[in-house]
Structure to design on (231 residues):
């Protein structure tokens, strides 16, 4: 069955353009021009990935992302205005997996959609070759069920947060750079040294885990190198 992509943008020209390119890749596209219309499809569980514009007439894309994260863990990509760094950070903090800045190249958006779906399928299908369960100091990650617990308490992680934590646990004792994390998760070439996507996800992970930035028990920052979880 073709994956269903929800596109929410009140600019009809942009929604139609995204629809054209995604449909050419055999995706089923659900176009909505308001958050209210989108919520009907979201509540019926019809979506495999959502693309949300930040500026919507009835509700911000941030609020819509938050509502999605209350019940679903499929990938969310935010469309942000050019140069609005705060929009990117806010979206990632609220549970978005990626963002793309307007104006954008349609083929880049398609590449990011495919990368997000590949990663999501890998970490939710139970067919991944890595160990299915990792345990570390009260932390338990189950790649088959996409469940994470810390000291027997369930952690509600986004797909990207889960992926980052899984990679760090799988390679515990080793320093993993932000660039390595980015490429393993998204599998594309759009990383740059100024990209703070991983930094924001790490910060949000620490908040959910109750981990201290100054004296972390789990995710440690190795300045100038990356991140690691001690053995």
């Amino acid at each position: 069955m073709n994956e269903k992509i929800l596109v929410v943008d009140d600019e009809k020209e942009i929604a139609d353009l995204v629809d054209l390119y995604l449909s050419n890749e055999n995706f089923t596209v659900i176009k909505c021009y308001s958050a209210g219309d989108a919520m009907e499809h979201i509540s019926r569980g019809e979506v495999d990935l959502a693309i949300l514009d930040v500026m919507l007439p009835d509700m911000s894309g941030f609020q819509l992302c938050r509502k999605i994260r209350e019940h679903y863990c499929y990938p969310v990509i935010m469309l942000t205005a050019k140069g609005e760094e705060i929009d990117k950070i806010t979206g990632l903090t609220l549970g978005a997996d990626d963002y793309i800045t307007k104006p954008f190249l349609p083929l880049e958006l398609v590449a990011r959609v495919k990368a997000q779906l590949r990663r999501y399928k890998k970490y939710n299908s139970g067919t991944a070759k890595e160990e299915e369960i990792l345990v570390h100091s009260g932390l338990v990650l189950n790649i088959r069920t996409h469940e994470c617990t810390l000291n027997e308490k369930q952690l509600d992680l986004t797909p990207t947060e889960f992926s980052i934590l899984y990679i760090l646990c799988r390679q515990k004792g080793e320093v993993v750079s932000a660039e390595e994390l980015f490429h393993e998760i998204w599998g594309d070439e759009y990383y740059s040294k100024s990209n703070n996507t991983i930094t924001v996800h790490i910060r949000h992970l620490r908040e959910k885990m109750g981990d201290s930035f100054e004296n972390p028990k789990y995710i440690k920052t190795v300045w100038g190198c990356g991140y690691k979880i001690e053995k």
